[in-house]
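Supplementary Note 2. Why include the ligand at all?

Several targets in our set were suspected to adopt different conformations when bound, so apo predictions alone were not considered sufficient. For every target with a known small-molecule partner we therefore ran a joint prediction. The input for zinc ion is given below.
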Amino acid sequence: MDCLFCKIIAGEIPSNKIYEDEKILCFKDIAPQADVHALVIPKEHICCANAVTKENSAAVAYIFEKIPEITKSMGITDYRIINNCGEGAGQTVKHLHFHILSGSNLNEKLV
Ligand code: 5GP
Ligand code: ZN
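The joint prediction is reproduced in token form.
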């Protein structure tokens, strides 16, 4: 499958890993938009939030269970989680991912 994040999971493309287990991977965004900018992805290929179903939603729940542990290990307590779903919303990589952003430059709030 021609998916950038599946290639990162497979180790075919290097990444700066923050956390990894059998279900998920968290790594640094290559073009950080905040002091801290990480991406959390399920290892299972799910294209976007629109493709979350009863069958695969456990992967999403698991990501959110792990976020407190991952952010704690990164030394942050305050952070923003963003998911872009669809090109019209700014999704450029078609593998479900959650941006974790933190730092002093989160002032221009969208929400
Ligand atoms: P999106 O725009 O789809 O919500 O987010 C995709 C994110 O993936 C962007 O923030 C972009 O900087 C990041 N990204 C794109 N290619 C790579 C890559 O090869 N490695 C890493 N670590 N991040 C990437
Ligand atoms: Zn993928």
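The chain has one domain: 4-102. The chain has a mean pLDDT of 96. Comparable summaries for the other entries are listed in the accompanying table.
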